[in-house]
Write a structure and sequence with these properties.
By secondary structure, the protein is mainly alpha-helical. The chain is built from 20 helices and four strands. Bound molecules: ligand LYPLPQDE. This is Lysosomal dipeptide transporter MFSD1.
């Protein structure tokens, strides 16, 4: 066989980066919807009388089905059994469905008068939509990771993962910055909750940003079909060059192999600690800016939006460093140290100046670039490729406990630490500001634990020789 015949579609730079560009659109839309409600917390409180606990319940719903019903684990098994095409279409369809239910719930404030399982039905139904969406976006996330490994293994894998994450973070950035202006622009007379009563009143449209997200998700669903045709061509070229089929098929006994691997557990625990101190923070960041730094609600999203902005450039940059120079475990430890530093300063009841918040958010952005750009490309160094879908799904499953539990805990702690706010809301008097000290101490504690686990991972890497400190590009 000649050298030319052995080349496959993934050996074409244009083809593999083109494939990456297409799947990134789907993830962009998914990340936009994930955080679209974050800057709307004060509006949900003023328009529909949601409490911080209600907001925490809604936010935690992201992980309900993934965690308690093991949907993510099923997703990983489906991915390894059925492949990336089927799983990608399935997961982006689920995202569209969940977003549709969430939109319907938010546009029906009359649900506020009922309760379901002790929760306001308005909150509950929005949460159900978000829970379904959470299944879709998480399974899409593991599918996309597997697609990147398929196209980029032995090439610029960390850079590719970094680029995909950068596009996804663009979605997060837009989700933090755009909803308040969008909701204000589409202000209308609609049903609101005032002192427990439903009244027709002029006010910002909380549902407008969700409608926008829904349209983006439909576009992401359609574009995934374009990827499917590329994937078919890749498989055809691999079959011709006899390049893939050396990979052993996934067996259920592989799950046992994954969960008895200590390196897997260290990555998974580091993942839940790290991400629980960043993503749930984003859900409360705009509110923190209003309450701690005295920013106007219309401008409060600007500072938190700097967080994903920095990651757009830094995640691919650090991914490139890992590809060429290695030092993956060290990068994860440095990221965890930055988390501890940032949240500790946020927790101080002093330095309440907006420029301090800007600096802290930028440092947090560096952490959110360092850790993911090293963490995700490290997984294929610990786990064989045929078990990757299941391994990623197990890691995301463990991570989802944090993405579900921490926002709920923060909402509860916020209400408990600020009883005067709840009282003022109930009495219809001027509402005082939330004190965010306790929630920020919780985030700092997660950073501290992440440093310890990062160090254990580095020690394990030395012992087992995973190569986490070695470059990804094979010379
Ligand atoms: N805001 C979207 C949450 C996606 C969570 C997902 N499990 C994940 O961790 N993705 C990797 C990342 O760094 O975004």
């Amino acid at each position: 066989m000649t050298e030319a015949l052995r080349l496959t579609l993934r050996d074409s730079k244009a083809a593999r980066w083109g494939a990456l560009g297409i799947i990134s659109i789907t993830m962009f839309a998914g990340y936009f919807l994930t955080d679209v409600m974050s800057p709307l917390k004060p509006m949900l409180e003023s328009e529909f009388a949601w409490s911080s606990t209600n907001y925490g319940i809604f936010t935690s719903a992201y992980g309900w089905l993934n965690v308690f019903f093991g949907m993510l684990i099923f997703g990983g098994i489906i991915l390894d059994k059925m492949g990336v095409r089927f799983t990608g279409i399935m997961s982006s369809g689920i995202m569209v469905l969940g977003a549709g239910i969430k939109y319907w719930a938010i546009t029906n404030p009359t649900l506020v008068t009922d309760t379901t399982f002790g929760i306001h039905t308005h909150v509950f139904m929005a949460a159900v939509g978000f829970a379904i969406f959470g299944v879709g976006v998480e399974i899409a996330g593991i599918t996309v990771s597997k697609i990147i490994v398929k196209w980029f293994k032995g090439n610029e894998m960390a850079l590719a993962m970094g680029m995909q994450m950068a596009v996804a973070r663009l979605g997060t950035m837009l989700a933090i910055a755009a909803p308040v202006p969008l909701a204000t622009y589409f202000s209308s007379v609609h049903t609101q909750v005032v002192n427990g009563e439903l009244v027709e009143k002029m006010g910002p449209s909380v549902s407008a940003p969700i409608a926008f997200a829904f349209v983006l998700l439909v576009i992401g669903f359609i574009t995934f079909f374009i990827y499917v045709s590329m994937d078919k061509k890749l498989d055809a070229s691999l079959a011709e060059s006899n390049g893939t089929d050396s990979e052993e098929p996934f067996k259920f006994s592989d799950i046992g192999r994954i969960v008895t691997n200590k390196g897997f557990w260290l990555i998974a625990v580091l993942c839940v600690l790290f991400y629980s101190s960043v993503f749930p923070f984003i859900k409360y960041a705009s509110d923190l800016m209003v309450n701690k730094y005295g920013l106007d609600q219309n401008l409060a999203g600007i500072i938190p939006s700097l967080l994903p902005l920095g990651t757009l450039f830094l995640t691919p940059l650090f991914g490139g460093v890992y590809d060429k120079k290695g030092k993956g475990a060290t990068m994860m430890i440095i990221g965890a140290v930055l988390i501890l530093l940032v949240h500790s300063v946020f927790s101080l009841p002093i330095l309440n100046y907006w420029f301090v918040a800007v600096v802290l958010v930028i440092i947090l952005g560096i952490a959110l670039s360092l850790v993911p750009s090293a963490m995700w490309p490290s997984v294929p160094k610990i786990i064989p490729e045929n078990q990757l879908g299941t391994a990623f799904s197990l890691i995301f499953w463990i991570q989802n406990w944090g993405l579900m539990g921490i926002p709920l805990l923060i909402g509860y702690v916020l209400d408990q630490s600020n009883p005067e706010v709840a009282l003022a809301k109930a009495n219809g008097t001027a509402v005082p500001l939330y004190d965010y000290t306790n929630p920020m101490l919780i985030f700092a504690g997660l950073g501290l634990l992440a440093i310890i686990v990062g160090m254990l991972l580095k020690m394990e890497d030395k012992k087992k020789g995973y190569g986490l400190e070695l470059p990804n590009i094979q010379k």
